[in-house]
Amino acid sequence: MATGTDKAVLNQQNPHWEKTYANVPEMFGEEPSEPAKKAEVLFRAEGVTKVLELGAGQGRDTVFFARNGYQVYALDYSETGVDTIREKVRALELSQSVTALRHDVRQPLPFEDESFDACYSHMLFCMALTTAELEFLSREIRRVLKPGGINMYTVRHTGDPHCGTGIHRGENMYEVGGFIVHFFSREKVELLAKGYEILGVEEFEEGTLPRKLFRVTLRKRKETRNETENDRDCGLYLPSRSFESYRSCGASQRG
How does pLDDT run across 35-47, given as a tens digit for each residue? Predict the structure, then answer.
């Protein structure tokens, strides 16, 4: 079993996604995801107007947010995906509400500090990103969020049926069917929550497998004093199973 990460292998995910999006124009369907619907309810309650969407894919959630009156900045590292989003919003006359940009989230976000009310991403965090890259991304999101801003993301967790299968690509990353997935444990959620208040971590399922995911909702702290102590007392929530079950892939099978 591999013990380290092969960056060349991880980097090959970009052309793989480009080819996939080119061959399957509506890979995820046209309807918005359930996490986007959940996010919109929270955004409306919080008075959010300007949203950063990371890993926007082919734009199903981008269009949903724009139709609900949000100003959306949609980023994806697939040029094909970004072109698809631009074509969709142009056809729907939503171009004034959407800015679509190609961007690799391993690089600094191309925005000024405290630019956004909220950040949303559906399964971007569980792509082929190392823990160090995820920590960098989490800091960048915190930088561009306004004080008290919301960061909602979803990730497949270590209780997912695919975790521990396929080709091990280092850390908790496994390649199945050509796609590398980084499966999250409790510790990883907490690690990436530095500088945030954790509002909730909920477990849900998606697709026919089904995929098993966490929906993580964070609020940027207005003050980060005593951050470590606050993070420890933030009250993580998971229905039906303890976080201890999700420490690593296959943990639940090992008892």
Answer: 999 999 999 999 9
Sheet holding 50-54, edge to edge: 98-102, 71-76, 50-54, 116-122, 145-156, 211-220, 196-206
| Residue 2 forms part of a structural domain | no
- CATH number of the domain residue 246 falls in: 3.40.50.150
Report the number of distinct structural domains present in the chain.
1
Quote the domain boundaries for residue 97: 7-254
What are 191's two structure tokens? Answer: 């690690």
Tens of pLDDT, residues 199-235: 999 999 999 889 999 999 999 998 644 543 444 444 3
Backbone angles phi, psi at 175, to 5 degrees: -100, 120
Angle, helices 79-91/13-23, rounded to nearest 10 degrees: 40
Q: How far apart are CA 31 and CA 76, in angstroms?
A: 19
From 98, 204, 83, 182, select the one nearest 133 (Cα to Cα): 182
Angle between helices 34-46 and 60-67 (to 10 degrees): 30
